[in-house]
Amino acid sequence: MRTMMASMKTALLVFLHWVLQYAVCRDVFVPAGTLYRVAGFPLSLPCAVSGYEGPRTQDFEWFLYRDDAAGRQMGVVSTRDKGFPYAPFQARVRSGEVRVERDSGDKVRLVIQRLRAEDQGKYECYTPSTDSTYQGNYSATVPVKVIPDTLQISYSRVLAGQPVPEGAELKLTCSAGIQSEQLTHLSIMFGKRSDGEGLGSGAGGVVSTVREIISIDKLLGVVPGHLYKKRYNDEEITLEKRNGEAGQDVYVMKMRAVQPDDTGSYFCEASQWILDPDRSWQKIAQRTLDIGNLTVQQLAESLSITSSPRGEVTLQVGSPLMLTCEVLGLPSEVNSGLLVQWMKRGSVSSDVTGTGGVEVEVARMSPDGVVSWGDDLSRGSGGSLEKVAEGKYSLKLFSARPLDSGVYRCVVSVYAGTGNPGPATPATLTQRSEGVTVNLKSKEVLVAAVAQLPRGPLLKRGSTITLICNATVTTTGPAQAQVQWLRWPIPERVIKKEQSPASDVTLPDPPVDEKPRLVACLRYDGVAELYTNGSEVSVDRLSAVSYRLRVHAATMDDQGMYACHAQAWGQDPHGLWYDTGAKAESNPVTVYLYARAADLLLIPLVIGVSSALFVGIVIIATVTCCFMKRLARQRTPK
């Protein structure tokens, strides 16, 4: 029994040894099937070996069995023997046209830089043995068919090299076609070369950068270059295929608006593709055609914005104001949208005309011609913004007012190549004109205001507070006063006494400054505006100079310090009212509210009722306590 078990173990070990040897035997791999390649273009045949013994770096030898040589073997190139190539390949090997490129120790590629028709045949990749025993596959073959070159490419117009203005449309055409018995596909790519500064790139440090703009791939899909994806998504770059003549299709690339970065040398590249038996796509032919150089002239070099009249303008209040903005240097062949804005800085209320305040927008005209006003001032006084000629815009204020004074500038944003840009479209360039200083001569206006509290009974909670404001406006021509009533809280004053040898000195604390609260306003046109919450307020005009404020059913929150502000409004020759800027503030009037008689009687009444209630509760509690104690003694057993 033991002898039989030993024999079985020995047989199993021999079988496993044989299986392992077979599993790790040498094997050589080359692409499967028949490969079709184009004459005049490179051939690259990969070869790899596995399951070998010995060094990691293996040697390779390539043989060719030509179709026209009756199956005779020809040595092409070897990694270990320089004298290996046969006569037809010796010169090509020495020049490097035919060579072996090593990817790793056991992977190489046979490269023939320019394939010839006589290179057609069956290629064999052979690996000399480094194994202890000769077993496995030491070579592999792949047939290669050389097909004629039928790839054609041409263009219809070459870039002349003349500068093209920024924002102009660029249109490039390229025709290409193939006529092959094999099923091959064609791809087209438009690209650009541009010179840039580089480090270590030779004399001058100039390097050429190649950018792929857009292409139609082998499966007829449009693919933008990675630097042009946004412009392609925004439909600024397109590529279309059109039917052509003589077996060539026409490919048209359009750039809607060229940019300064588009300067460079343009080319068209056509590639021929074939699907190998292993289902991988291989590029078998390629041709590049230079279309020409493009130079983009930047818009900033030619664009200028001017405004007129220049310098300084002085007008009477109520006179019309007209300013003109002109856009110069905009290329006529470029379809550009313009955003025109009139901006103003400073006013009559500033310390120095034209230098104070924040710059505000007066009016604007969008690229689609829609006019909008930046503030109520311009819209209220009446005005217009018009396009009077190509590149010329006129701003008119029919009746200028003192607040219209300041420095005006025309601001133009150019959307080169885009006639109707979207809200998120950035402007290509924005420029400003020189400032035009507008001064308005106004009539001398004097304003005075006096507030008073009429004599009468003491003001109490629930009474009506009546205040009078006498406001006068002295000027020539029609004028009206606009009166505002404001209220401050009564400041709390703490009386402090400082002891001194001579006398007692009483020093009040300074009042606390608090912002006033607007109570009511009677406008120049007679419209009343009320701002208080919870109190019933009314304002009216008693005479030409007298204005009255009444607070009905006053509460303790209505007491405080009241003052009136008078502002003068004038009327221009067109009948429009304007703020002259003249104003005055009255003296403050203090309003106290006293307690009513009913409130004073309520205090002792509340105190008396509270005291009586307290005494009653104490008496009841005492009597109840004594009664309960007596009752408890009576129930106690003797």
From TrEMBL:
In which compartments does the protein localize?
Membrane
Could you list this entry's UniProt keywords, alphabetically sorted. Answer: Disulfide bond, Immunoglobulin domain, Membrane, Repeat, Signal, Transmembrane, Transmembrane helix
Q: Which InterPro entries does this chain map to? A: Ig-like_dom (IPR007110), Ig-like_dom_sf (IPR036179), Ig-like_fold (IPR013783), Ig_sub (IPR003599), Ig_sub2 (IPR003598), Ig_V-set (IPR013106), IgSF_V-set/TM_domain (IPR051102)
Q: What species does this protein belong to?
A: Perca fluviatilis
- As given in the record, the signal peptide range reads 1-25
UniProt topology in membrane: Single-pass membrane protein
Q: What is the lineage of its organism?
A: Eukaryota, Metazoa, Chordata, Craniata, Vertebrata
Instruction: Supply the name of the protein.
Output: Ig-like domain-containing protein
Q: Where is the Ig-like domain?
A: 40-141, 148-290, 301-430, 448-590
